């Protein structure tokens, strides 16, 4: 029973992978060589099976076996591709060939065996990829030789295409490097490096297919760290560049002030404590400080690590009137390279009664450090402010003084027959208004209108002329405004005319009562009632 079950199971397995034929076909076959393009769809034709037919043969079976037999299936006398959407034929995964075997059974007896070799044709379906080990951050010495190869990058293409390497010129630091052989990936240094100027560089590198139509490419950012080398001298602080843009410092002169009472104390210096720094910031080697000369027989002692200078004993008092300066040369030495830098220390001994200068960080020193141009601008602004205030006060004083002088100036107007004195408070204003009217050709008074003789219209009839002859002719009018000192004097010819009352024909008539004699005294103010017109003088 168990034997029958095993036999049935064996026949079932054979039927799954075998095609049953009703003729003797096993004797006329051959090996199969074919090709198929990667990413081909399911059911793609691979090859025909060529076997001689024999009608007298018994039933035969064809079976596919081998390492890649699952990629094929039999359909009649053809072999087809067994792929799916989730199971894509990929040359980069399976390799360039698929290998299988075709076995022919007749009456369950193996009669023939044929090899199947199918080449997978490549398609350009992959982009290049950089090897991770070749694009890690690089370290280059700042003294690396120009035109030397400093690093190499490598990219691969799964399709086996040739790769070219290109530095993106839009990257900021691209001008430091170049590639002489595009397919080699070797990067050459074009410009010298300086750690003190730049400690890190970045460029964009492209890998591109050079022998395909698609020209697939990929890019990556490369980081280059510059390694500092001991090639700079130490310098004292604060650093004052020799010129803008030049990283070379001028060593300062440290100054300190002491008195004859100072002893066993640490000195304070201007513009700051004695400090030096290694020019190679990436190394920052320790420095040693030494007094080169001028220690005055160990009167000044320096700490080799901190740079502090200590006054061990007081200054000699055997020369009470002496005022001298001690100059100490200080050296900072790089312990690794032995490079040195020196600075001067100026120590002034102050005498009794001499003012002690302020320290390096007081208001006086800070004001002294202000830019001279800024200080000059501030001083000019203050000066202009004072000048403007002075001119303003002067103008106000002049304007107030002018009305006072005008009030005290006497004005006298003389006419031939009448004398008029004004004591009203507003008389001076009235006189000034009359004077202004004289310049314009006419002016108004209390008794009528005073006009120039030239502006009087000519007589219109003989009666008016006779009337004019019968009356005594008034002499030429003269108005005189002057002060007693004779500084001002104005004259004009005036006579008095009278306005005609309402209802009378318009026009002007000469006053028969008043001749043109008028005298104005600008002395004490008078009231309007004191103005007297003496007509008796006119009659005489």
TrEMBL record:
Extent of Low complexity compositional bias: 461-484
Keywords: Calcium, Membrane, Repeat, Signal, Transmembrane, Transmembrane helix
GO biological process, one term: calcium-dependent cell-cell adhesion via plasma membrane cell adhesion molecules
Chief localisation class: membrane
Signal peptide limits: 1-18
Source organism, top-level taxon: Eukaryota
Chain segments carrying region Disordered: 449-485
PANTHER family recorded: CADHERIN-23, CADHERIN-RELATED FAMILY MEMBER 5-LIKE ISOFORM X1
Molecular function, one GO term: beta-catenin binding
Cellular localisation: Membrane
Cellular-component GO terms for this entry: adherens junction; catenin complex
Organism: Xiphophorus maculatus (Southern platyfish)
Record-given protein name: Protocadherin-8-like
Domain called Cadherin: residue spans: 28-130, 132-236, 274-359
């Amino acid at each position: 029973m168990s034997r029958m079950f095993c036999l049935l199971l064996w026949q079932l397995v054979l039927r799954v992978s075998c095609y049953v034929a009703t003729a003797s076909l096993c004797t006329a076959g051959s090996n199969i060589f074919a090709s198929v393009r990667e990413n081909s769809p399911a059911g793609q034709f691979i090859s025909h099976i060529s076997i001689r037919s024999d009608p007298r043969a018994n039933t035969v079976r064809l079976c596919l076996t081998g390492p890649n037999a699952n990629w094929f299936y039999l359909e009649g006398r053809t072999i087809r591709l067994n792929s799916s959407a989730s199971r894509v034929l990929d040359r980069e995964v399976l390799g360039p060939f698929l290998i299988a075997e075709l076995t022919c059974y007749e009456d369950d007896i193996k009669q023939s065996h044929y090899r199947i070799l199918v080449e997978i044709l490549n398609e350009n379906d992959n982009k290049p990829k950089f090897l991770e080990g070749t694009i890690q951050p690089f370290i280059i010495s700042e003294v690396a030789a120009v035109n030397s190869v400093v690093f190499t990058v490598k990219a691969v293409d799964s399709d086996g295409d040739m790769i070219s390497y290109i530095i993106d010129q839009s990257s900021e630091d691209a001008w430091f490097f170049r590639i002489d052989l595009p397919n080699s990936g070797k990067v050459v240094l074009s410009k010298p490096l300086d750690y003190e100027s730049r400690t890190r560089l970045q460029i964009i590198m492209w890998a591109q297919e050079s022998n395909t139509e698609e020209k697939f490419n990929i890019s990556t950012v490369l980081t280059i760290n510059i390694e500092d080398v001991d090639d700079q001298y130490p310098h004292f602080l604060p650093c004052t560049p020799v010129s803008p843009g030049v990283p070379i410092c001028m060593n300062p002169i440290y100054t300190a002030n002491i008195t004859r009472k100072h002893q066993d104390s640490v000195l304070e210096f201007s513009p700051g404590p004695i400090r030096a720094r290694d020019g190679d910031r990436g190394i920052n080697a320790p420095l040693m400080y030494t007094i080169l000369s001028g220690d005055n027989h160990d009167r000044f002692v320096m700490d080799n690590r901190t740079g502090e200078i200590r006054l061990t004993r007081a200054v000699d008092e055997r020369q009470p009137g002496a005022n001298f300066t001690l100059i100490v040369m200080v050296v900072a030495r790089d312990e690794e390279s032995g490079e040195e830098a020196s600075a001067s220390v100026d120590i002034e001994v102050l005498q009794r009664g001499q003012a002690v200068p302020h320290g390096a960080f007081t208001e006086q020193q800070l004001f002294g450090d202000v830019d001279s141009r800024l200080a000059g601008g501030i001083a000019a602004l203050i000066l202009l402010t004072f000048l403007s205030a002075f001119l303003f006060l002067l103008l106000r004083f002049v304007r107030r003084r002018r009305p006072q002088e005008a009030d005290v100036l006497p004005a006298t107007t003389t006419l031939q027959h009448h004398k008029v004195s004004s004591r009203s408070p507003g008389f001076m204003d009235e006189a000034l208004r009359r004077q202004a009217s004289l310049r314009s050709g006419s002016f108004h008074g209390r008794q009528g209108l005073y006009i120039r003789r030239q502006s009087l219209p000519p007589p219109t009839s003989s009666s008016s002329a006779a009337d004019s002859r019968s009356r005594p002719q008034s002499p030429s009018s003269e108005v005189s405004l002057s002060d007693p000192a004779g500084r001002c004097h104005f004259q004009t010819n005036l006579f008095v005319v009278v306005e005609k009352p309402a209802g009378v024909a318009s026009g002007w008539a000469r006053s028969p009562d008043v001749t043109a004699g008028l005298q104005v005294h600008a002395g004490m103010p008078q009231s309007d009632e004191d103005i007297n017109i003496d007509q008796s003088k006119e009659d005489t």
